[in-house]
Amino acid sequence: MNSIVIAITGASAMQIAERSIQVLLENNQSVDLILSKGAYEVAKSERNINIPVEPNSQRDFWRQKLDTKSGKLTCYRWNDQSASIASGSHKTRGMVIVPCSMGTLGRIASGFSLDLVERCADVHLKENRPLIICPRESPLSLIHIDNLKRLAIAGASIVPPIPAWYTNPQTIDDIIDFIVVRLFDSLGEDFNYVKRWNGPNK
Hints:
Layout: E1 3-8, H1 14-26, E2 30-35, H2 37-47, H3 55-66, E3 72-76, E4 92-100, H4 102-109, H5 116-126, E5 131-135, H6 142-154, E6 157-158, H7 172-185
Parallel strand pairs: 1-2, 1-4, 2-3, 4-5, 5-6
């Protein structure tokens, strides 16, 4: 089975990324994982965790933290431009950038790839494969909006981390699960972790 690429960049809301990885692995999916250089700093600041950079050590870290042995997880260094996923000849089912910083967004929109995250996104656009952007910024400047528009025109799907209240969430985890499920809806995955809208209660 071809993999789904998950990229985590240096924006707030790493919990959504963590849950995304967990959901995929629990459903026996294959995950290629990239953290940008800035994502490690956000992990230290917001989550008080030190994520190993070395790929095998990072894989073991996530396995232990997410408490799952299922699925396939491959981790990559943020600057490994020779990685298989940096090539259009390497098949994937799609890529999700969650959360996506405005710096990463701007460079992808400009076709300017400084690291493996941006190169991988560029590959997905040029190969007409699904690219899901989960932008995490507020308020948005006109520059941000223009960059989002450019990526949407180029074929990316823009899925902001916006919760729904009709699910009657009771915890932060409920809100995160809704956002994660909506992200993967855009890839055609049907993960039944949340209540879906079926019309008003009668």
